[in-house]
Design goal:
2 copies of one chain form a homodimer. Chain A has helices at about 25-40, 85-95, 115-135, 190-200, 215-225, 240-255, 270-280, 300-310; strands at about 55, 60-70, 75-80, 80, 100-110, 140-145, 155-165, 180-185, 230-235, 255-260, 290-295, 315-325, 330-335, 340. The first copy, chain A, is an alpha+beta fold. Chain A folds into 2 domains: about 20-165, 60s Ribosomal Protein L30, Chain: A, CATH 3.30.1330.10; about 180-340, PurM-like C-terminal domain (Phosphoribosyl-aminoimidazole Synthetase, Chain A, domain 2, Alpha-Beta Complex). In chain A, the strands form 3 sheets. In chain A, strands 9-11-8-12-10-13-14 form a 7-stranded mixed sheet. Chain A has a 4-stranded mixed sheet with strand order 2-7-5-6. The longest helix of chain A is centred in the middle third of the chain and has 18 residues, at about 115-135. The first copy, chain A, is globular, with a radius of gyration of 22 Å. Chain A starts with about 25 loop residues before the first helix and ends in a 13-residue tail after the last strand.
């Protein structure tokens, strides 16, 4: 199927730019969708060309899971990725943190007039590659254009749908005193990578974002635990606000405290160095390819083994325990042996990090 | 559940403004979500407070339907609605045009620093009211903040999920020569309402947007046709680009032509007058509460009756037929008896209309 009458020239993907016509819903919109979005993201559902996609339903005995994320990261590309793959990974991960199998993505684009089409294509290609690698197609999309100065290149809102075995019910509200807190790998890489790009900082070692889809790791963890994933309470990816904020969210939702062991929290030396230089605490720096798991203590060894056996969890560690604390404080035993409260992020060290 | 330590003041919803902290993922983000978004949109799924919602799955014998829309309308409020209810109606309608029952919505917000919280709350309240009236809850959300001058008040991307009886398969590609084209009511109201607000025009009669959820009308139409909705080929809502563009899309997808009867296309006198004043053709002006149906000729009387019996289809009309035309032209027999081609929208008379 091609909508193009012979007298319409193909999009100039090398030198062209987004203009207001591309958002008007007429011929130029159809051309942008067909020659750029559908061509890059190509799959049977998107090719249907209707206003929504009609999709195989999840198997019986499951619950639907739905998650959404707006992506406004600046700059659009950074060491290790760009807004395109990030928009895929971030939403897949939100679905996966429910113990779910991500099935489908939908993506809405807000383009700023003047955005080079070559830049847009590179980002959509990165999105397509990430979606293919993850096995989760972008089945529906929408594109709008705003005037120059009313946006910032582009924003992408991604929504994911998946299914979870109805016997599995993970939630930030399910942690209880005595549970163990596991972390899948070293923290702070995404935030430091983005910030170094934004501020044109050079470190001795190039620090790359950890942006990655975690549904494979989650599947391996669930597999190890067996049907219903007994003993697993919570999965959460520590993105904006970093590990510290995520643990505070869980503590608040569950009405518990936590006690972390600083020595056990993996942070790469180069990230630690960059954070010192930038005046940041790596515990508050965003990650895009890590997860936190809270589980019953007797299940922790099994779960940790399963995590370490997976490429995305090789450096997984047991970083602390859940405590009985009506004040819901997250505390940390420091390297020097003291104890300090690890509070919520309250300032804003890193705007537009995802 | 409340996350708020005693020393945090409630949001100042009267005089406060969105600041960068509200997007940083820390305490200020949590407060904005809890005191504004969750309070207004309140439902059992959003209250779970996790990164995604866990939802009852659709019944057996169905297909999932997923649709997404970014909303960048300017101004944010207009006669008859605002970006909040529009974001709900638009996405419900995209799901419904698949013959589906809309079940759940997810909403991502991109807020511009400095947006008054009172304005944001009014929009979210309008969204909540529209979702409640439609019976389709907003079950997941996300909020990001961009610096002043990098956005335009707010953008909302809404994604909808629903289910459709697997025996029903509607598509813009299913129209065939001899089919009948039905329209649910008069065209052009949404675009004219937005434009009059934007340009501060005053007409003798206030023209309101037709923004409305159409899944009730669709359900009534499917009910009238019986199991599998035999004879119904296509449903489509003529939004951006108007009726003319939507019919051209269907003609292109199906590889057919169309012949419309100008005299049969309902346009309110005041909309016609405003369009003349503004130099617009009502056939190219956006609608947000109308649908086009293509069906087999023998089913048309039944379908038209069902549409007219529903509040959203009272003025439904048979506006033309599908023709055998390898050039896929949409043509119109004019009031004066001539014939003209109704081409795609190719200029851009109405930017940021939805």
């Amino acid at each position: 199927m091609s909508f193009k009458p012979d007298y319409i020239r193909p999009l100039d993907l090398r030198h062209g730019r987004v203009d207001m016509n591309h958002g008007a819903g007429g011929r130029a919109s159809a051309q942008l969708i067909e020659e750029l979005f559908v061509r890059e993201l190509d799959n049977e559902f998107l090719r249907q060309g209707d206003d929504g996609a009609r999709l195989p339903a999840p198997p019986p005995g499951t619950r639907l899971v739905m998650a959404t994320d707006a992506h406004v990261i600046s700059p659009l590309a950074f060491p290790g990725g760009d807004i395109g793959c990030l928009a895929v990974h971030g939403t897949i991960n939100d679905v996966a943190m429910n113990g779910a199998v991500p099935l489908y993505l939908a993506a809405s684009f807000v383009l700023e007039e003047g955005l080079p089409l070559a830049e847009l294509r590179a980002i959509v290609a990165s999105m397509a590659a990430a979606a293919r690698a993850a096995g989760v197609p972008v089945v529906a999309g929408d594109t709008k254009v705003v005037e120059k100065g009313k946006g910032d290149g582009l924003f992408i809102a991604t929504t994911g749908v998946g299914w979870v075995d109805e016997r599995i019910h993970l939630s930030g509200a399910h942690a209880r005193a005595g549970d163990v807190v596991l972390l899948s790998g070293p923290v702070g890489e995404h935030g430091v990578a983005v910030l170094s790009q934004r501020e044109s900082l050079e470190f001795e070692t190039r620090i790359e974002s950890d942006t990655a889809a975690l549904h494979g790791l989650v599947a391996a963890m669930l597999e190890a635990l067996g049907p219903g994933a007994p003993g697993l309470r919570t999965l959460r990816d520590p993105t904006r606000g970093g590990l510290a904020t995520t643990l505070n969210e869980i503590a608040r939702q569950s009405g518990v405290g936590m006690l972390l062991h600083e020595a056990a929290i993996p942070v790469r030396a180069e990230v630690r160095g960059a954070c010192e230089l930038l005046g940041l605490d790596p515990l508050y720096v965003a990650n895009e390819g890590k997860l936190v798991a809270v589980c019953a203590p007797e299940r922790a060894p099994l779960l940790l083994d399963a995590m370490r056996a997976h490429a995305r969890g090789r450096d997984a560690a047991r970083i602390g325990v859940v405590t009985d604390d009506p004040l819901r404080f997250v505390q940390m035993r420091t390297l020097l042996g003291g104890r300090r409260v690890v509070d919520w992020l309250s300032g804003e060290p890193l705007p537009r990090i995802c």
